[in-house]
């Protein structure tokens, strides 16, 4: 059996960093993970592991922009359409790798590393890629056709919790991407080290407005009522959006599809927990007894509650 884990999420969420930590952690446990780069604009200098499969060997955004005159967004869509038309290339590249994890590092925004300098993180970033474009569903269908067991991980970064509107827009994007992809799915709140660090540093905590430290559980298991209260907010919300917010509250109450596993890469137990959830979701090693994911150590985030 081959296993594919698609690492998705908005721009800058920490997908590439998580992908390489994942590989490092697997190899420390005498297992093997291979990086598959799906970002046609990735800067090779930023890879900690050399990808075994690289979309840039098929097509690069630079060439598409240079030779076909596309801009970064159209160029990215072009690259993916080209990949979908060349599934035989991917299929050949994906030969072998029995019992290993293939970790697909997906791009978060058009241009990826190349445009990091130019495009500031506008929070959800190039999210249309996962919600509006049939790219991932088609890719997943192909992986399944090839007999590869596939799951998706969706990361949003902990800074999203500093702004509840940004946070809920992340929750809705996760939901939308999930319902588009009918495969096992894990949502992750990345960069939890920033929350922990700010919690230890009163000035940092205050600066970042992490009042929600106390509310952490209400973010990891999104409580739509956070949207319904305006207490402590500097500005009254625009009443025009009241009905919309109410509808979102109702939607999340009726369909509590999204909850987040916290990921703190500075804590190997946290990474281990996330990986054990991925193993469980994938039923990794189907001949063995399926393992229950080990629970988050109560102590891990206790100080944050
Ligand atoms: N503090 C902290 N920073 C992180 C963590 N993970 C990633 N970062 C930083 O966040 C930035 C973006 O990380 P990437 O891993 O490149 O994010 P990405 O999701 O692959 O970004 P795109 O591919 O451009 O969408 C980099 O500056 C990382 O150093 C983390 O766990 N903690
Ligand atoms: Mg990346």
UniProtKB/TrEMBL annotation:
Asked if GTP-binding is a keyword of the record, the answer is yes
Known partners and oligomeric status: Binds to RNA polymerase II (RNAPII).
**Does Methyltransferase show up as a keyword for this record?**
no
Q: Which family does it belong to?
A: Belongs to the GPN-loop GTPase family.
Taxonomically, the superkingdom here is Eukaryota
Which species is the source of this protein?
A: Tetrapyrgos nigripes
- Name the UniProt record assigns to this protein: GPN-loop GTPase 3
- Matches recorded under SUPFAM superfamilies: P-loop containing nucleoside triphosphate hydrolases
The record's InterPro entries line, in alphabetical order, gives: Gpn, Gpn3, P-loop_NTPase
Extract one GO molecular function annotation from the record.
Answer: GTPase activity
Instruction: List the taxonomic lineage.
Output: Eukaryota, Fungi, Dikarya, Basidiomycota, Agaricomycotina
Q: Which Pfam families match?
A: ATP_bind_1 (PF03029)
Q: Which UniProt keywords apply?
A: GTP-binding, Hydrolase, Nucleotide-binding
Q: What does this protein do?
A: Small GTPase required for proper nuclear import of RNA polymerase II and III (RNAPII and RNAPIII). May act at an RNAP assembly step prior to nuclear import.
Q: Where is this region: Disordered?
A: 285-305
């Amino acid at each position: 059996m081959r296993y594919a884990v698609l690492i998705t999420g908005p721009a800058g969420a920490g997908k590439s960093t998580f992908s390489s930590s994942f590989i490092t952690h697997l190899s420390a446990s005498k297992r093997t993970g291979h990086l598959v780069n799906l970002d046609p604009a990735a800067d090779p200098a930023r890879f900690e592991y050399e990808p075994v499969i690289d979309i840039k060997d098929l097509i690069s955004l630079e060439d598409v922009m240079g030779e076909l005159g596309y801009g970064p967004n159209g160029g990215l869509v072009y690259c993916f359409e080209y990949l979908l038309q060349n599934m035989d290339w991917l299929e050949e590249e994906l030969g072998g790798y029995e019992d290993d994890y293939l970790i697909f590092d997906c791009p978060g925004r058009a241009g990826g590393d190349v445009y990091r300098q130019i495009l500031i993180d506008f929070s959800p970033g190039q999210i249309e890629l996962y919600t509006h474009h049939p790219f991932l569903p088609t890719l997943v269908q192909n992986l399944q056709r090839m007999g590869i067991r596939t799951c998706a991980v969706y990361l949003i970064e902990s800074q999203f919790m500093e702004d509840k509107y940004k946070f809920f827009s992340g929750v809705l994007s996760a939901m939308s991407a999930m319902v588009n992809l009918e495969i096992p799915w894990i949502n992750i709140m990345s960069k939890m080290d920033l929350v922990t660090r700010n919690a230890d540093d009163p000035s940092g905590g205050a600066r970042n407005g992490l009042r929600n430290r106390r509310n952490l559980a209400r973010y990891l298991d999104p409580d739509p009522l956070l949207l319904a209260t305006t207490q402590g907010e500097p500005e009254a919300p625009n009443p025009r959006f009241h009905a919309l917010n109410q509808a979102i509250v109702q939607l999340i109450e009726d369909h509590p599809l999204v909850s987040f596993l916290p990921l703190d890469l500075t804590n190997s137990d946290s990474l281990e927990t996330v990986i054990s959830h991925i193993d469980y979701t994938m039923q990794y090693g189907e001949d063995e007894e399926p393992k229950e994911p080990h629970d988050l150590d109560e102590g891990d985030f206790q100080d944050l509650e």
